[in-house]
Structures are given as C-alpha cells and as structure tokens.
C-alpha cells in the first residue's frame, strides 16, 4: 500500500478564496448568510437565505474557447484546480499530462441554466436555445471532465455526483486510486453553484431555515432552536500525490490522508441512519490503522437539520465518547453541497496546522437529543493534534469519513 499526501490545496468559498481571509472570518465567528432578494420572486419558496460567493470572476487569461463548455460550477472547479496545481508547483510540469495524473471530482449537478434550456425545449417542443455545449454544461460530471480537458490530463476520470458527499468521495476515491497504484497524482475535490432549484428541493422536505429577516442567526447546527439548513456554493481542490513521488521532487507536503470509508444506509433516500454513520467512522479508523483516541477533532457534516444533527452526533458519541471536540463549518458558509467535503477538509487541515479550531456559529444551547460531545462554542478552541476526522452524509444514504494526519 502506498502513502498518499496532499501537496496542493485551493478553495473558493463564501468565506474567501485564500486561507488568511478564511481564517479571519472563522475567527470573527460570524456567518456569510444573506437574504437573496432575487428569490423573493419565486412563489411558494419558503427560504430566502443563502451564502453565495460574491467575489468570483472568470480569470482574464481564460480564453473564450477554453470556457465555452463551462457553466459556473465547472469554471469555479477549474479555477480552483489551477490554483491547487500552482500551490503544488505542478501547473507547468509536463509530467501531469503523461497519464500519471487523474481527476476525481464531483458536484450534485451541472449548471442549472443549461438544464433550463433543455426544460424549455421539452416544454416548448423547440430546440432553439440548445447548442453544442449545452449538455456539457448540464451534465453531472461537467466539473471533472472540464478540469481534465483544460489541463490536458490523460489519467483516469472519476466523477462523483453523490449530492453532499461529492467532494469527500472525490478525495476518497482519489486517495484509493493512488494508494492501490493506479495513479501517482490526482486532482480531487468538488464544486457547486448556487441555484434556487436546490433550495426548493430542501424546502419540500421542510429542511430549510426560514429566518429570512435574520440571516445572521442561521444556520445553527446542533442548537435546540435551529430551524433548518442554508445553502451555499463554492469549489475546492486538492492535489493528492504518492508520498515517494512527492518526496523525490521536493514537494511541500501539507498532510497525509490515512483513512477513508464510504458506505450506504440501504434503507431510505432522505432519512439518515445513525448506525451506518457509525460504521463509516469505524471503517475509516480501521483503514487508517489508528484508535479512536488518536483523533483530536471531528469536523461534522452538521447541516442544522433535526434528523441529521441528531443521527450524526449520536453516532459520533458512540465512536469517540463525550470528550471529542466537534464543530460545523456549515454554520459559517451554509451547505455548499458538492463542495462541502473538500472545503471543510481544506479548512480543517489548516486549522490543525495552526492548532486552533473554529466554533459552531449560533450554537447557544445543544439540543438534548444530540449526542454528548465537546461542542466548540463561542470562540475558537486551541487544540494540538496530528489527527482529524471529517465526515459527510448525503441523500441516498451515502456516508463518508476521511482521516487526515498532520505532517
């Protein structure tokens, strides 16, 4: 089995697009949720809240021909991947084009403006508005393939369109591809663009926050008065590399991925299952070859829904006991769906390296139904640890758990 390390990282998030900006926003313990005035036009949509990325634009060096197959989600993914390659010192390295580098990347869906074009075609029975790139922008693997084409990668492509675990599966499957000798390098991660259609999905399940006049007070993961989730958007990319390959070229190494597990509930499409969540965490620990006591912090999925928060924290308590520090970064930037797995891992790794972890925003009193844990509240907590776990759980009963070691 080969070791897998992270040699490049990048994030585009509502909290910022570089670590100093993100860290400052986390330490301020304030969220980036806003009232979406444009959503007021949608009849029957209960939530008007979201956490958009407000400062993202197409880079000036991207030519029209290069981006015509990209919607916003693929563009954010590609820009994030480019920044991660730069961070790893690999952007202009011809070795990434010889088949040794692949892509493992996901999103819930493609760009919804392209989906709308096909919807109009079906409704109006008129193909006007459809062009050669409409499907490419719409398809669920648009981020993965656009990254591969943009950088001329000829290794394997693993699309992970698995809702809220798209980003974490992207990392996990990339880790396995390198660990088992199929690739030497992988671009891994996930992305999502904000769309009211996705808010409507959660609205139908009565899972969205409707504190529309108080965006700063929501979401509130684990809190007894939480009223649902808030959506966000963004993209994140890791460069994963076989350890000896990274060492030979003198690469900077941020951390090592030592454990990954993914399983499914096999019972219900939208209701979480605490037992299989627990199994996923235990399987990740087994893959890592460490005891639960070695983990110093758990980054929770923490969506701020009643069923999800309770199921997850009860499972976490059974694995780690009552003294495990835990917090939810979705309280700052909302649920970024396909991007959450990688954005939360990115932030957690850098907090681990700086020996502090952000609290959960808006958590005042823990719901008595939640598992007994050391919920980080109020202010960042100083923690010195070399091992963290980050978990994500998705529609379809898909559960992921990643374990990352500091280097």
Characterise the protein shown here.
- The protein has 407 residues and is of the alpha/beta class.
- The chain has a single domain, classed as 3-Layer(aba) Sandwich (Peroxisomal Thiolase, Chain A, domain 1).
- The protein contains 13 helices and 16 strands.
- The strands form three sheets. Strands 5-4-6-8-1-9-16-15-10-11-13 form an eleven-stranded mixed β-sheet, sandwiched between helices. Strands 2-3-7 form a three-stranded mixed β-sheet, with no helix packed on it.
- Helix 3 (72-88) crosses helix 6 (142-151), helix 7 (166-179) crosses helix 13 and helix 10 packs across helix 11 (306-320).
- The chain starts with a strand and ends with a strand.
- The mean pLDDT is 97.
Tell me the Rg in angstroms.
Answer: 20 Å
**How many angstroms separate the termini?**
19 Å
Structural class: alpha/beta
Spans with pLDDT under 50 lasting ≥5 residues?
A: none
Number of helices: 13
Mean pLDDT: 97
Query: At CATH's second level, what is the architecture?
Result: 3-Layer(aba) Sandwich
Widest sheet: strand ordering? 5-4-6-8-1-9-16-15-10-11-13
Which CATH C-level class is it? Answer: Alpha Beta
Number of separate strands: 16
Categorize the overall geometry.
Answer: globular
Main sheet, how many strands, which sense, barrel?
Answer: 11 strands, mixed
CATH-defined superfamily: Thiolase/Chalcone synthase
| SSE string | EHEEHHEHHHEHEHEEHEHEHEHHEEEEE
């Amino acid at each position: 089995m080969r070791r897998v390390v992270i040699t490049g990282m990048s994030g585009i998030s509502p909290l910022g697009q570089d670590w100093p900006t993100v860290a400052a926003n986390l330490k301020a313990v304030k969220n980036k949720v806003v009232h979406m005035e444009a959503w007021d036009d949608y009849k029957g949509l209960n939530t008007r809240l979201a956490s958009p990325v407000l400062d993202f634009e197409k880079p000036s060096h991207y030519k029209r021909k290069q981006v015509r197959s990209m919607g916003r989600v693929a563009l954010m993914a590609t820009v994030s991947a480019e920044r991660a390659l730069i961070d790893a010192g690999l952007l202009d390295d011809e070795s990434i084009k010889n088949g040794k580098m692949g892509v493992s990347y996901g999103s819930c869906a493609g760009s919804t403006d392209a989906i709308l074009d096909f919807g109009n075609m079906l409704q109006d029975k008129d193909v006007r508005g459809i062009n050669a790139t409409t499907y490419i922008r719409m398809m669920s693997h648009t981020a993965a393939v656009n990254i591969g084409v943009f950088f001329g990668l000829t290794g394997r492509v693993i699309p992970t369109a698995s809702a809220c675990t798209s980003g974490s599966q992207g990392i996990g499957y990339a880790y396995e591809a390198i660990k088992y000798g199929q690739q030497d390098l992988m671009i891994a991660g996930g992305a999502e663009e904000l769309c009211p259609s996705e808010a409507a999905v959660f609205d139908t399940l009565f899972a969205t926050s409707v504190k529309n006049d108080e965006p700063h007070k929501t979401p509130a993961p684990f809190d007894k008065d939480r009223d649902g989730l808030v959506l966000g958007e963004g993209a994140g990319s890791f460069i994963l590399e076989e350890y000896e390959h990274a060492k030979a070229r003198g690469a900077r190494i941020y951390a090592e991925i030592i454990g990954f597990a993914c399983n499914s509930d096999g019972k219900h499409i939208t209701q979480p299952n605490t037992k299989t969540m627990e199994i996923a965490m235990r399987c990740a620990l087994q893959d890592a070859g460490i005891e639960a006591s070695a983990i110093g912090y758990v980054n929770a999925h923490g969506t701020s829904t009643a069923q999800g928060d309770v199921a997850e924290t009860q499972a976490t308590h059974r694995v780690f006991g009552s003294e495990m520090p835990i917090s939810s970064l979705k309280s700052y930037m909302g649920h970024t769906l396909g991007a959450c797995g990688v954005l939360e891992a990115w932030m957690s790794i850098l907090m681990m390296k700086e020996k502090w972890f952000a609290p959960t925003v808006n958590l005042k009193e823990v719901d008595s139904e939640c598992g007994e844990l050391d919920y980080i509240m109020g202010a960042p907590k100083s923690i010195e640890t070399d091992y963290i776990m980050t978990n994500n759980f998705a529609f379809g009963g898909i559960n992921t758990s990643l374990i990352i070691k500091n280097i």
